[in-house]
Design a protein that fits this description.
The structure is a single chain. This protein has 3 domains: about 1-80, putative ntp pyrophosphohydrolase like domain (putative ntp pyrophosphohydrolase like fold, Orthogonal Bundle); about 95-175, no CATH class; about 180-255, no CATH class. The strands form 3 sheets. Strands 3-4-5-6 form a 4-stranded antiparallel β-sheet, with no helix packed on it. A 3-stranded antiparallel β-sheet has the order 7-8-9, with no helix packed on it. Strands 1-2 form a two-stranded antiparallel sheet. It has 7 helices and 9 strands, in the order H-H-H-H-H-E-E-H-H-E-E-E-E-E-E-E. The protein has helices at about 1-15, 30-50, 55-75, 85-95, 100-115, 155, 165-170; strands spanning about 120-125, 130-135, 180-190, 190-200, 205-210, 225-230, 230-235, 240-245, 250-255. It is elongated. It has about 260 residues and is α+β, with helices and mostly antiparallel strands. Helix content is about 35%, strand content about 25%.
Length: about 260
Amino acid sequence: MNKVLQEVERFYLQMNDGDHIGYEPRMLDGDRAALKQNLLQEEVGEYVEATLKNDIVEVADALTDILYIWAGAVIEHGLQDRMQALFNEVQKSNMSKVCQNKADSDQTQMYYDKQKIPTLSNQCEVNPDKFVVRRKSDGKILKSINYHRANLAPIVNAEVPDGITLDDIVESDRSLKRDKFSTLERTRVGDHFVVLEAKEMGDGVLLRTMVLDRDESLTQPVSDRFISNTEIVEDMDNNTYSLRTVIETNKVCTR
C-alpha cells in the first residue's frame, strides 16, 4: 500500500501538481472533489463494462486505474501516512464478524432469529473452531455477537507524537469499547447469583442475564436481549459499567 502511495505522489510532483498534495487530513474544495468523484465513477463504469464483456484484461486495466485514482484521492486528502492504520482498524472490525466458537455462532443466530432474519452457520475452512453466520437469502456475512465497529476518528484526528504509532492511539481510545461482556450487576439471591452482563454489538448492546450457583456454573439457560442505540460506559474511578442511550437529538441519558 505504501509503495503505491509513494509512486503516485512521485507522479504528482513530476506533473507539477505538488500543490494538490495534502500533508494533514483535509477536505477538498468543490471543483477538486468533483473531479475525483467523476474519475472514480468513470473507472467503476469501465470495470462494470469489462465484467459484462467477460474481458479479464480490461478488468485488470479498470482495477489498476481505480487503484491509481484512489491513491491520488488519499494523497490529496492528506491521509497517506494514516492509511495503513485506517486499513488495520477496518480489518479488525471485519474480522470481528467471525464467531470464535460454536457457542458464539449459536448466540449470533439467536439474535438474528429474534429479528426474523433466517441464517446459516458454517465452519471456517482455515480454522474449523470458528464459524461464519450468513443471511440465508443471499449469503451475506452477518455481524457476530463479538462485532465491533471500526473506530476511525482517532486515527484521522490524531496528532502523532514521536515514538507513538497510530495503532497505539487507536488502542488507547478503546476505553469505552468492550470486546468482552462487561458486568453491570451481580446480585445474590439465596444460594445463587443473578448476573447481568453487556457487550456492544452493531449499533446497540446485547444484554445477557445468567443465574449461577456457588461454583459459577449455569443453573438456567442464558437469557439475551438486544437494546439498540445504546453503548457501554466505564466508570474508571469506581470500576463499574453502565449503559448510555444515544438519543436522536444527540443528548444522552444514563440508565
